[in-house]
Amino acid sequence: MRPAVIWRAAGLAVLLAVVALVPLGNNVVVTQVGVLVLLYVGATVAWNIFSGFTGYISLGAAVFFGVGVYTVALITKHLNLTGGVVFALYPLGGLVAAAVAVPFGLIALRVRRHTFVVVTIAVFFIFQLMASNFSWTGGAIGIIPPYLNWNAATVWNPFYYTALLIAVVAIVLAWGIWGSRFGLQLRAIRDDEDRARGLGVKTMRVKLTAFVISGFIIGTLGGLYFYYQADALPQYAFNPFFDLTIALMAFLGGFGTLTGPIVGALLLEPYLGWAQQAVSNTYAAEVVLGALFLIVIIFLPRGILPTVGEKLTAARASRQRRAAERAAGPPPGSPVGATPAGSAAGGAS
Amino acid sequence: MTALLRTEGVSKAFGGVQALSDCSIEVEQGSIAGLIGPNGSGKTTLFNMITGYGRVDSGDVYLNDTKITGLAPDKVFALGIGRTFQLTRVFSRLTVMENMIVAAHHQERSGQAGRLRNPFARAGGAATRQRAMELLEFTGIAKLAGDRAETLSYGQRKLLELSYVLIADPEIILLDEPAGGVNPTLIGTITERIRELNRQGTTFLIVEHNMEFVMGLCDRVTVLDYGNAVVSGPPDVIRNDRRVLDAYLGTAEEDDDSSAA
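C-alpha cells for the assembled complex are given below, as produced in the milestone run.
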C-alpha cells in the first residue's frame, strides 16, 4: 500500500471515530444539525463522483434527491409504515433515482458544458413542476408520513448513523473509483472527451454509469430526508438551493478532488445551519450563499485543498532550494532550483 | 500489394467550403505513406473522416476491405487505427502512466474476457504497466511516467501521444504533423522510431509539412490539393511533379509555360 493511502485511511478512521461519538453527547440540536451535515457530505461526494470527475457540472442533483424523497413518502403513505422499517426503504429511493438517472443522462449527456448545465436545470424544473401539480404527489400540500412515536431525546440518532453510513459508503466509493480504470476514464473525459473516445473509451457508457451511481446515493439521502423533515413538499424535495449548495461545497473544498468535497461540506453546512437559525430573515443566508459562490469562483477557483496544497509544495520546494544553496555555497544557476514547484500538488489532495 | 486503408471518393463540406472533394487514397500494408498538400487542402479533415471524428458527405473508408465509414472514434480505434493530433491532445491532469492506461483499456478488457473484474481494482495491471513502461522507454520519456502530462513540453507530448497510441497495438497509425514545432534532434528520434515500428509491421500514414522529413521517410507520397488527391507516387517522382510545385508554390507564372493565369 502506498503511504498516501495509509495516511488517508488513518485520517478517515480518526474522523469517523469522532463523528460517531457526536450523538452520545445527548445534545438533540447538535445531533439534528449533524444529520444535515452528514447528508451534505454524502451528497457532495456523490455529486463529485460524476460532476467533479468528469467536469460535467450538473445542477440537477436535486432531481435525484426529490425522487428519493417522494419514493419513500409514497411507499410509507400507501403501506402506512411506521417504526424502524422505514430506514430499510432509503435504498429504494436511491434505486428509483438511479432509474430516473438513466433517461435523464441519456438526454443530458449528449451535450456538454454550458448546454449541459442548462439541460440539467430544465429537467430539474420539470420535476419540481410535476411534484407540485400531480394529484398523486399531494400537489403543493405534499405528503406527510404516518405518525412516529419515538423518544424525543434520541429521535435523531438513527438518522444520524444512517446518514453517516451513506456518507461513508459514498466516500469509499469515490476513493475506489478514483484510481480504478473507470475513474481514469472519467478523469480522461474531463481533460479531453473526444480524445478519450478516440482511444477506445466508451464515453457515453462511462459518463452514464457515474451519473447513475451519483443519482443512487443522492436518492438514498432523499429517502432519509423525508423522515427527517417529516414531509415531502415540492419546494423542499426539489430545491434549487440544494444544487447550488452542493456545487458550492465541492468548489469550496476542491472540485474534482477526493477530499475537497468532504471539507467543503463540513465547513459550509454548519454555517448555513447556523445562519438560518441566527438570521431572522431567511433570505439573508441565501444572499450570503450566492456571494460566497462568487468569491470562491473568482478567488479560489480550484478550491481550498488544491490551492493550499500547492502553496505548501511551493514553500517546501523553496525551503529545500535555500537549504541546498546554503550547503553548496552560491554557484550561479544551481540546477536544484529547477525543481518544478507544484507539479505534485493539487492532484488527489 | 493490398491496400490496408483506402478511401473512395470521400467528400466533405463545411458550410460552403469543400474541404474534401472526391478524395481517394490508398495506403499499402506495411508501408509508410505520406500525405502532403498546402494548408487547407484537407489533410486533417481526411484524418478526421477516417477516424470517425466527423461524418463524410459521400464516399467510403475501408480498412482491410471492410467498410468503416461513419464508425465512432472508439470503434475505429478498436479496429486498429491509431491516430495522433496536430496540436497534441493528452490528458493534462493525468500522469503520463495514467494516460497510457486509459489507452490500454481495450487490451486489458479483451485480456480478461470471461473473468469477473473487480471494479475497484487499481487501473492498469502489472502487465499493462510493464508494457507501458517499455513503450515509454522506446519513445524516450520513461523518466516522466509519474509526472502530470501538463508539465510536459510540446515535443514530449508528441512522444506521449505516439506512446499511448502504440499501447493499443494498432495496425496503422495516422500521424498528424509529428515533426511540427519539434526540435531537429527530436525529429531524428521520431523518424528513427517510426522506421523501427514499420520494420515490425506497423503501417503509417503521415501528414507533414517538413518536406525533408516526408521525402526521407515515406515509401509513397500522396498530394492533396483543394480536397482532392491530385497525384501519388514515390518521393522522387513527387518532388519533381509539376502539380506539386503548383500546389505548394502557386502557379508557376515565371515559367515559360504561361497557360496558367
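Residues 28-54 of chain A form the longest helix (27 residues). Chain A has two domains: 25-242, 302-325+340-349. Further analysis is deferred to the final report.
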